[in-house]
């Protein structure tokens, strides 16, 4: 079975995908607002369509001691926690516009073993151009892990 997904490039060679219908909107040069005392990887929000949307910084999640990234592009994503649940929204910082990719069941592989933080936010992974790419679990990211610390710090 094959599915269409959006390949997200966070910079520094860090890639992940979201489902075709999960990526809703791209925001160039977003105006972001700091959230005091929030985890560094989720310390900013965006006002989008009269909603306060949490913004996920993947590089801060994977390398908590890295330098803060200046956001020039955001992807607004949508998800549901379960059937018939109200849609929720989040955003992720991107280094470049997303690319459309086809993902087949035959590409399934293990998550990168060198970065345990992926296991807290990815439902599974697949091999793309000989590299494991995480499939983001948006409800998990924005409901649970956004409140917590990266696995590398635990």
Question: What do these coordinates show?
Answer:
Strands 9-1-2-12-11-10 form a six-stranded mixed sheet. Strands 3-7-8-6-5-4 form a six-stranded mixed sheet, covered by helices on one side. It has one domain: CheA-289, Domain 4 (OB fold (Dihydrolipoamide Acetyltransferase, E2P), Beta Barrel), CATH 2.40.50.180. It contains two helices and twelve strands; from the N terminus they run E-E-E-E-E-E-H-E-E-E-E-E-E-H. The relative contact order is 0.24. Strand 1 and strand 2 form a beta hairpin. The protein is mainly beta and 154 residues long. It has helices spanning 58-62, 138-144, and strands spanning 2-11, 14-19, 23-28, 32-34, 44-48, 51-56, 73-79, 88-93, 96-104, 108-109, 122-128, 131-136.
Helix fraction by DSSP (H/I, runs of at least 4): under 10%
CATH class category label? Mainly Beta
Outline the biggest β-sheet.
Answer: 6 strands, mixed
In CATH, the homologous superfamily goes by the name CheA-289, Domain 4
Oligomer type = single chain
What's the SSE blueprint?
Blueprint: E1 2-11, E2 14-19, E3 23-28, E4 32-34, E5 44-48, E6 51-56, H1 58-62, E7 73-79, E8 88-93, E9 96-104, E10 108-109, E11 122-128, E12 131-136, H2 138-144
Parallel strand pairs: 2-12, 6-8
Antiparallel strand pairs: 1-2, 1-9, 3-7, 4-5, 5-6, 7-8, 10-11, 11-12
Main features:
mainly beta; 6-stranded mixed sheet; 2 helices; 12 strands; globular
Briefly, what is this?
The chain is mainly β and 154 residues long. It is built from two helices and twelve strands; from the N terminus they run E-E-E-E-E-E-H-E-E-E-E-E-E-H. The chain has helices spanning 58-62, 138-144; strands at residues 2-11, 14-19, 23-28, 32-34, 44-48, 51-56, 73-79, 88-93, 96-104, 108-109, 122-128, 131-136.
């Amino acid at each position: 079975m094959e599915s269409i997904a959006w390949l997200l490039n966070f910079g520094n060679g860090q890639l992940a995908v979201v489902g075709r219908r999960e990526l809703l909107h791209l925001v160039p040069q977003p105006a972001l607002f700091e959230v005091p005392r929030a985890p560094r990887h989720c310390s900013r929000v965006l006002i989008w369509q009269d909603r306060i949307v949490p913004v996920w910084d993947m590089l801060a999640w994977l390398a908590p001691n890295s330098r803060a990234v200046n956001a020039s592009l955001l992807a607004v994503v949508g998800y549901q926690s379960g059937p018939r649940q109200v849609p929720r929204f989040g955003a992720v910082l991107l280094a470049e516009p997303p690319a459309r990719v086809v993902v087949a069941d035959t590409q399934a592989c293990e998550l990168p073993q060198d970065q345990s933080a992926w296991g807290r936010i990815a439902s599974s992974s697949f091999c793309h151009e000989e590299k494991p790419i995480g499939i983001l679990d948006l409800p998990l990211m924005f409901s649970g892990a956004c409140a917590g610390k990266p696995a590398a710090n635990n």
